[in-house]
Amino acid sequence: MARVRVKSDRERDSMPHSKDVNDNPENDKTESKESKDVADDKAKRPSSIRIFTYIVFLMIILIGSVFVINYYFSQDSTITPDDSYHYDTYKFDRIGNYWYTDLIFSTNDSKLVNLEMRYDPKSLLDIEVDPDLYDHFVKTQGFIITADPTLSGVTAISMMHLNRIIGKEFGLFNYPTFAAITDDHPGMGDDTPVFDCENATPQYKVIWLGVGNDTEVTYNNNCIKVSGSNETEILRSTDRFLYEAMGIMNASETPTIEVP
Length: 260
Description:
The chain is an alpha/beta fold. It has a domain at 48-67 and 126-245: Chitobiase, domain 2 (2-Layer Sandwich), CATH 3.30.379. Helices cover 25% and strands 23% of the residues. The protein has a six-stranded mixed β-sheet. A five-stranded antiparallel β-sheet has the order 4-3-2-1-11, with no helix packed on it. α2 (48-63) packs antiparallel against α4 and α4 runs parallel beside α5 (231-245).
């Protein structure tokens, strides 16, 4: 069982603006009319859930891809796993195309989670991860998940997977999470936020998904780069990052692997 150090409730649920996260206004006085305009603007602003749905939908439509995302369905205890092994203290079972393990999340009330992942830890040992990634991950108020809008629905799956585990949908880490794109793109709409690593702050770290020379997970200046040599490799590095964040894998330690 994992002992995961996570914070419980986060009070800041509003989407930070890329032009504001690095600014420190010296004068916070506003006229009543300006306050009303800001309130009206916030009321019209789409929620983070709608932004996630909008971005993922458009990314898939742009490439003409159709994916069936089969995450977090109830596991039938009578099913015989196709493959099983122990990774340190965690037992992993493969059923169909997915891997499952049970772990305890140490939130306000310890929660047993039957975790479903696309890849198992043993298959991700070749991916290099910043050894201090976990410490950086837990020291923040929220995350902005951003990707190149020209990438396909494969990367959109990674964004959704990150949001589900890190965000509030399943009550695991409960971080406020927001979707963004790295560049303006036709058809994305004026309300789609644009963020890159240069917009990252200690309060709102950026998780950047993209294609690079290597499949790896790196950290620099409040930005976590989840890179892959292609988009399928981004799926692998996403799972590797999540295993590190959940305490299942540790970049600084050699695991014990036992096959029945």
